[in-house]
Amino acid sequence: MEPEAAEQRAGVSARESVPSKRFHVLVGVTGSVAALKLPLLLSSLLEIAGVDVQVVTTESAKHFYNAQEIPVPLYSDSDEWQTCVVRAWDLRRPVLFCPAMNTAMWEHPITAQQVAKLKEFGYTEIPCIQKRLVCGDEGYGAMAEVWTIVEKVKEVLERS
Amino acid sequence: MEPEAAEQRAGVSARESVPSKRFHVLVGVTGSVAALKLPLLLSSLLEIAGVDVQVVTTESAKHFYNAQEIPVPLYSDSDEWQTCVVRAWDLRRPVLFCPAMNTAMWEHPITAQQVAKLKEFGYTEIPCIQKRLVCGDEGYGAMAEVWTIVEKVKEVLERS
Amino acid sequence: MEPEAAEQRAGVSARESVPSKRFHVLVGVTGSVAALKLPLLLSSLLEIAGVDVQVVTTESAKHFYNAQEIPVPLYSDSDEWQTCVVRAWDLRRPVLFCPAMNTAMWEHPITAQQVAKLKEFGYTEIPCIQKRLVCGDEGYGAMAEVWTIVEKVKEVLERS
């Protein structure tokens, strides 16, 4: 989240007088059916002033959205790129994660252990919610609503 | 393990008067030489009354048996299907696991940690046995005998 | 590290009168830029008397050296061979590991946990050093110098 001199997205005059921070948001997307919300998430993030968005995706995630419809740079994961990005993350910069899975997966005891481990690393959980899942089951495991994620991103950016 | 109305395998009259439970057993098989016992295990399981069997296999496991000789539905693992099945398992239903490996692998300290983790999840271990392994070493690590596995499956089904 | 009757590398007379131990050193190399030091490490190891060297490599590691220039048997990892070798290692024989990574990776809390786990298994760490990394960052994470590794290997062989 590097502060930069006034510089904003296309369509805003470069002569804009109030300097503003510019933020780089990297969205990592993995193979959950929740990945179908990627286009909606991106368009919502792009509405935040001063935000640049890029996406790193696994191959599995690509089953759930159309790469042609992604309006920002998209990096693919054939070489486990996404894993490497997270592994090499500079922890002075925030990491938010949004679990999304089937209710049986959510209730498996390994999930709580994995979520606890991520939080122990200093990552921020955007908790999953309860609803009727795409697979027909009703219960916890659904990804947080897009607007919840976007609000949380804004909160984090404001503190940066 | 859903109880169902009297319904049995092919060859038994549908008018059979004693209702019986029907059980679904999913056999997961991974890349150990012990996978060569898959056909024997399947034929033994199929002798249990009211049992349906299906197999999910990794690609590596296929080196050890002939897929043509498997008399039940066989699901392959090119997309880590087996891992996903276990990850999304409804833990109200039993999971049995049968370790099978070389003695040096068995004695590596990570093995006891992994076995303990699986048991902590509520899975039931069918312990490996000591014998001369296919690689020539003598020691622990061999998969339990097929009849031991089948007896344990019956025990679990009877409690269901 | 099996002691054997006097037997040395090509070029040394078989009639050599002083018996000496013969050691087998297996070098595992993974996908870090530090892998570009493999040829130097091998030529240094081959100078130790009575040492046979073999290499097991991941596919990723091959981006960093020229397989044509490796003067010893080289086993590739398309089937996760390297992982299997470590997993089945007879722990009566020493394992040394040389971490090598970007500073941000090194500083991620998971690294200390993983290093601690390896040491708990009885493996010996040859600690990384601080320097300007290939990526331009300055900090810890660089692989130990080749001479440090070779000295440590000699020390271990002398105790065997």
| The number of domains of chain A | 1
Q: Strand arrangement, largest sheet of chain A?
A: 1-2-3
Mean pLDDT across every amino acid position of chain A: 86
Looking at the structure, the CATH topology of chain A is: Rossmann fold
Largest interface: A-B, 9 and 9 residues
Q: What is the CATH class designation of chain A?
A: Alpha Beta
So, CATH architecture of chain A? 3-Layer(aba) Sandwich
Keywords (chains A, B, C): Coenzyme A biosynthesis
Family (chains A, B, C): Belongs to the HFCD (homooligomeric flavin containing Cys decarboxylase) superfamily.
Organism (chains A, B, C): Geotrypetes seraphini (Gaboon caecilian)
GO cellular component, one term (chains A, B, C): phosphopantothenoylcysteine decarboxylase complex
